[in-house]
């Protein structure tokens, strides 16, 4: 990528997934050894071809939105297999749900923390039209005037569940 001409130390990652993808496809891939190997090999081929330094998985969200109950374990397996194939040559990250409830459904946090270079905790849209009062959509700390979740509570939940701070 041309970014590296400007800053040779910059790291670029290619990402797959996102909100519009849902869970069904990822659930099927994570549950099948052959599909997992194909995804990992395709990721390596893509990174080599275009000079990316790593890969980000934005599965929104394992075990939810059309996923399966076994997605949590299968996602951990997928991440471990990515790490084994990548070694230290490539960066590996995920974009993750933020709340404690999402963590308990979707993520084997200790396994992910051991195998990922970093976790992008999506701490936006914590508040919105579903609330009964107007407030910040991603407050750093709890606001008792508008009860609910804050960025600090989300990060604390990840750490409490085994993420390496």
- N-to-C terminal Cα separation, in Å? 31 Å
Tally the helices. 7
Which CATH architecture? Alpha-Beta Barrel
Residue-averaged pLDDT: 93
Strand order of the largest sheet: 1-2-3-4
Q: Which oligomerization state do the chains in this entry correspond to? A: single chain
Structural class computed from helices and strand pairing: alpha/beta
Family: Belongs to the glycosyl hydrolase 18 family.
Domain GH18: 1-165
InterPro entries: Chitinase_II/V-like_cat (IPR011583), GH (IPR017853), Glyco_hydro18_cat (IPR001223), Glyco_hydro_18_chit_AS (IPR001579), Glycosyl_Hydrlase_18 (IPR050314)
Protein name: Chitotriosidase-1
Short description:
With 165 residues, the chain is an alpha/beta fold. The chain has helices at residues 3-6, 24-30, 33-50, 71-86, 100-106, 109-115, 151-160; strands spanning 13-17, 54-58, 91-96, 118-121.
Characteristics:
165 residues; alpha/beta; TIM Barrel; Glyco_hydro18_cat; Glycosyl_Hydrlase_18; chitinase activity
Task: Give an overview of the whole structure.
The two termini are about 30 Å apart. Helix 3 packs across helix 4 and helix 4 packs parallel to helix 6. By secondary structure, this protein is of the alpha/beta class. The protein has one domain: Glycosidases (TIM Barrel, Alpha-Beta Barrel). The model has no long low-confidence stretch (mean pLDDT about 95). Helix 4 links the parallel strand 2 and strand 3. A four-stranded parallel sheet has the order 1-2-3-4, with helices on one face. The chain has seven helices and four strands.
């Amino acid at each position: 990528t041309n970014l590296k001409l400007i800053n040779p130390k910059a790291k670029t990652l290619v990402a797959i997934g996102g909100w519009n993808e849902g869970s069904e496809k990822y659930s099927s891939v994570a549950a099948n050894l052959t599909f997992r190997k194909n995804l990992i090999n395709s990721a390596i081929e893509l990174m080599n071809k275009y000079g990316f330094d790593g890969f980000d998985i934005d599965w929104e969200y394992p075990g939810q939105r059309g996923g399966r109950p076994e997605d949590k374990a299968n996602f951990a397996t997928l991440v471990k297999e990515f790490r084994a194939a990548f070694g230290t040559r490539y960066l590996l990250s995920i974009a993750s749900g933020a709340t404690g409830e999402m963590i308990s459904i979707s993520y084997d946090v200790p396994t992910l923390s051991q195998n990922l270079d970093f976790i992008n905790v999506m701490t936006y849209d914590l508040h919105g039209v579903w609330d009964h009062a107007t407030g910040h959509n991603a407050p750093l700390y709890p606001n008792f005037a508008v009860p609910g979740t804050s960025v600090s509570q989300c990060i604390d939940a990840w750490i409490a569940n085994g993420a390496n701070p």
